[in-house]
Amino acid sequence: MARNVSFDLNNPLLEAGLESPADEEGVHDSFNQLIAEQSQNGELPEALELQQLQREFDEEARDNVPYLPSPGHEHGGLRQRQGEMESEENRQTDPLVCEVWSSATLKILSSMPSRTIGRSRGAIISQYYNRTMELRRRRQSRPSIRDFSPSARPSIRGYGMDADATDAEGSGVSKRERLVNNLQNLSVSDRVRMLQGMPLSVAEKRELRRLALQKEKHTLSGSQIPCCSQLKYYLIIALRQSWYSWLSFLHSLQLWQVLLKRASGRFGSGVLSYFLFLKTLLFFNIFLFLVTGSFLVLPQAVHPPVLPAERPSFTGLELLSGAGYFSDTVMYYGYYSNHTLRRSCRDDPGSQNPSVSNSTSTDCVSKHLSYNMPLAYFFTIGAAFFITCIILVYSMSKSFGQSFRIDKSHSILAMKAFCSWDFKVIKKSSVKLMSENICTQLKELLAEVNQKHVKNTVCQTLWGLTVHGLAWTICIASTTSCVVGIYFFSEYMQQNLKETVRSPTHNPLLKEASLLALPVLVSLINLLLPGLFNLAAWMEDYDSPSVRTYVSICRNLMLKVSVLGVLCYHWLDRVADNPNTIGVTCWESFVGQELYRFLLMDFIFTLLDTLFGEFLWRLFSEKVLKRRRKPVFDIARNVLDLIYGQTLAWLGVLFTPILPGVQILKLLLLFYIKMGSVMMNCQAPRKPYRVSQMTTIFITLLCFPSFIGASVCVTYTMWSMKPSSSCGPFRGLKTMMQAGKLWVQELEKDNPRLSLLARAHAYLVENPFFLFVGAGVFLIIIYFHSQVVDGQRKIISLLQEQIENEGEDKKFLITRLQSIHERKRTPARRLTSQDSAC
């Protein structure tokens, strides 16, 4: 796995200064003080040390670049001979700045830490021997650099010279042994950081670490360690290995980890975001299913009510319609009791068992364990929605913080190129998978870096606006016509149900089959209309694939919201107001059956889209058109289908407590079907693009309008609509929320000390103002979090700008040194030419 790069300025290990032989913070401060002192004292000699170095170079006749004094003296003689053959006028050119530098300036530049790569192995060992010695001294005593006088502060002359002196003292073996000894005397963290900073091969680093550990083991074996210390040492090692094994086991339990990596490597971050979003929805539904199953389904299944004598038999059509045999099960609202379930009533032969009775009378007066089903139903649904809202808000805020940060493509490109590979991966398939993933990410970043913004002329802009306007007109008109068609068709189906009920000889199977007409029509519209949206997007010809995806998301969202709005009006206004006219005694169970049918039809039509839109199209393209071109996975349509199905599940949890379980089964099957279809039938986008904020947009759309709309409908049903009088846990009540009010009144009657609880319930639950306050608090939290993220983005942008300015400052200082050296050197050349002329 690739490691994340973090910058912690407060980390004490950074004080080791492994990238510089001196304390960088102190050196930088001392340089700032020196600059300030020079500015106060007037114009002093600006290049005193540089002149000293130049005199030394002129005496030694080493004015060429190849013989710059550096830790690599093994090849110094050859470099000197090559340098003497070249003339002094033929100077080296820096590839980054494209300037011609003198030999003195290049000598200073060669001593910089960034120029040490490429030196010989012995020189590197010598240099890091000096660094380990300095680190050990600083660990023992590290006085502040501000305590020194200006003359004793770090000088540019001494930088990088100790390595040369040490290199000339002895052979490579002695230097290697001294380095191993110093590494052995360092702490474990400092030793690891020192080895990581060495520009050596992995094999040589491993050898140095082995020698240091081997000497340390000999030292430990030579000294007598107490038995308790050995026991403590082995116990710590065992606990650490157990902890790492446990973490590795938990990491292996992550759902679909290998499949997600494979999809990301072949198709990029866009397709990966779809499957990650599907995984998020799966966890939401697992939570809902556990809550409703534990507090509603399981207690009622343990204490089932008395079922009617004329119960319909199972025919198989119930799997599609959800009616018939399933109507009198824990699947629907009408099955649940409206009284307190008591555990010991079955053991009392002289009393009526209320747990198997749907009547409102309760003759069992046992004081043993009891379960108030109406109260549990009300608070379970309310608590499930409240916790889901908190999780959604937290996920959305966290996603905002992760995706809307400053992530310039150039910096991420460098990070991906140099810091993404995990060297612990040794399995061949894992190596191939990781290489594909990194390759795809690099393609996306390069496409974003190379993206050019072309300025259009006035005529081109007007033509583009005209095309966009025409495309949006087509999409809005088609969506409006489909929504109007659904509205009138639902009204027609309701009239048809009324006529079927009035008919003396109606077939129940035909009635159940006719109930599938509206879900089939809506699912067919959701399948075909996105194709028209894609045709409009092709007509618009967007330059950026990400913009095209976002526009497609907006159009599909407009369609889904409109359809769900019409359906909610149909269920909560037409069906709930006059259920008897269509032959329904429990309108809550009928709405639950409708939601089950819509959810099932949506899954079936998704499979048909996968079969005809991806598999058969690939076969047609390969066999008939003789082209190897495959369809591209439509992220916008598939994601909006997921949000549409999840909205149906949230709407139906009140009327069908077991509906989240159906949604879980649907998502599991959908994941494997879509993953197999994507791998076999689809191809990666022709224009790679990075979608850094797409996951945040998906979570935002899931929160609003999906969850907020479902919560409004469920809250309106529980607060305002009258429940059915012949079924369900709230029969005989004006509203569902009255169950909580009656319970609080009973508590207050039994114990007057709980009057405060009654007032709290009246102000917090019965008053809708609390809901608005809670919603306002969540919105304020999201707003403040977005402002914090925006402030962090501004700070990061300022820091990046400061880093760029630091680079420009370095270039300026190097150019200044070069100009000073040229001014000092020109008179000397003139005198030399005059002497030669004489």
Automatic annotation (TrEMBL):
Membrane-spanning parts: 272-298, 375-395, 462-489, 516-538, 595-617, 694-719, 769-786
Domain of life: Eukaryota
Domain TMC: 586-692
InterPro entries: TMC, TMC_dom
GO cellular component, one term: plasma membrane
Basic and acidic residues: compositionally biased ranges: 72-92
Localisation: Membrane
Family the entry assigns: Belongs to the TMC family.
PANTHER family listed in its UniProt record: TRANSMEMBRANE CHANNEL-LIKE PROTEIN 6, TRANSMEMBRANE CHANNEL-RELATED
Protein name: Transmembrane channel-like protein
Species for this entry: Parambassis ranga
